[in-house]
Amino acid sequence: MVTIKDVAKEAGLAVGTVSRVMNNRGYISDSARKKVEEAMRKLNYHPNEMARSLQKKYTNTIGVIVPIIDHPYFAKLVSCLVQEAYRQDKKIQLLSSGGLETKEAEFIELCHRNLVSGIILCNGSIDVASFDNLQIPVVTIERKKEGDSPSIECDNWQGGVLAVEHLVERGCKNLLHVSGHTEKNMPADVRGNAFLETCARKKVQGKVVSKQLKRYELPDSDQFISSMLDQFPDTDGIFVSNDIIAVMVLEICKRRGLRVPEDIKIVGFDDLNITRWTYPQITTIRQPMEEMARAALDLLEKSQKKKPVASRTVLPVSLVVRGTS
Amino acid sequence: MVTIKDVAKEAGLAVGTVSRVMNNRGYISDSARKKVEEAMRKLNYHPNEMARSLQKKYTNTIGVIVPIIDHPYFAKLVSCLVQEAYRQDKKIQLLSSGGLETKEAEFIELCHRNLVSGIILCNGSIDVASFDNLQIPVVTIERKKEGDSPSIECDNWQGGVLAVEHLVERGCKNLLHVSGHTEKNMPADVRGNAFLETCARKKVQGKVVSKQLKRYELPDSDQFISSMLDQFPDTDGIFVSNDIIAVMVLEICKRRGLRVPEDIKIVGFDDLNITRWTYPQITTIRQPMEEMARAALDLLEKSQKKKPVASRTVLPVSLVVRGTS
Prior knowledge:
Two copies of one chain form a homodimer.
Chain A: H1 4-11, H2 15-23, H3 30-43, H4 49-56, E1 61-66, H5 72-87, E2 91-96, H6 101-113, E3 118-122, E4 138-141, E5 151-154, H7 156-169, E6 174-179, H8 190-201, E7 205-210, H9 222-231, E8 237-240, H10 243-255, E9 265-270, E10 283-286, H11 289-304, E11 312-315, E12 318-320
Parallel strand pairs in A: 1-2, 1-3, 3-4, 4-5, 5-11, 6-7, 6-8, 8-9, 9-10
Antiparallel strand pairs in A: 10-12
Helix pairs in contact in A: 1-2, 1-3, 2-3, 5-11, 7-8
């Protein structure tokens, strides 16, 4: 195996100089840099990140635990985390738990054995407090609040307010909120509360209906949505708690002969790709996932450096107006 | 830091015995196993995977390079790879290149520095041969064929044949194939050739139209699809080369007042989640992504052990009949 000493010898320079070039640290003359790079190429030398990590006693790897990857919300979140990690020169070890607590526990242990420098728990439900002696910083994203790990959330309350205010502004008087719960006590739950309070404030009718979904199963909610439209036939505006169900609500409205947005208006939540593949395209509340990913990684970095971190970070959402409203 | 020696001392056993328990190797009595496990718990000892990897000179990490994660096809492929890697006790380091060759090259170098034990290149276009002195096994999935890295593909030809045979069986006489190219010389290209040959064999009309898409951009093909339907008004069956475009074709047919499947039938390709969120649900050709993920990881394992591997592995597709046909 080629070592840094071989590179120094080949370049005719001191090991310290080679090290400075490789770590891009301190003063390095252009000619020294060029010599080192040529020597590295000639000897086919690749600095060994693992040996460095072992010296530091941790890797630059972040464990990311999501319930599911093949799902438009989590695919976008993972994408944002992978891209932000790359920007910060970190690696992502990705694990998918199916939302099972036993798997989550096993994955946290696995992350520990692999000396990750931090863990990001997306959604899910295991009690992080039970892993206190892990001594690895943990941060959660849009996840049930338990224990004292710092959390990153979007402003779910603001999302509910924005959706109702927009529908009312567009003339709606009879609003319905369709939520699709997977767990209890999730940050997303307040979307419904904000919906009700804003309906009262704006003096319009507001009803909340919710469909209990199996853990992260993609919804099969045709009948449920149809029966809700039967039950509340005066509905002229629907705020749906996620874009996947909003796609279905749109489809069912069209099938019932309702014109969207003329007869009924729809606002989703998350701003996923699929909102742009429907006709009309779906108005939605944008969850700032790039910013949430960055906040999570920044927070882990601070934790590792023993700097103080916010226990709760709530990032603003925004209204994206498209064709359904 | 707690070491294996501390565990052995606490358990009152030899270091070799503790090592056998931790690696689950050789004979271990139940009582010894229990003692070791108790000592590990008591001392909060977590075996250090990284130190082991360094001894072995490689990690059990596989680098996976995809062009994009937030996309229904690649999200499913990544999901299958992560799950299969977990089953095989391997880690996935995930990187997303945006389809850029410069990024791919950088990521391959990054994988090398991180001592990955193999690289899986999904799609993309960089010439793998230029990295020959990497000495890391590389396998490609549904990717442009260049150089001599072993490849995993689905049987794209069979997919085209199955789609046409099904449409003809359902009574179609004027077929159209809509393809959405992103690169040239991709394995998926033969879907169109198989379509044409099978149309000729079955003595039905067959036209191929293709929309050049930007690299992995999600399509904005409304106008294109509409103009194709104007140009070929007798079309009664459409084979679309991927499910995302199939969703759009379905939407445009409905908007033009065509009844699906009565007036026009649609068959997609891939079998992604989104085929079950439309009305009617989309008939498609299932790409066996779980099996492709397993084949890729198995192949890297063999390569690493210097066993011979297939240069090309083609896995069978299947027809999934739903509401659009």
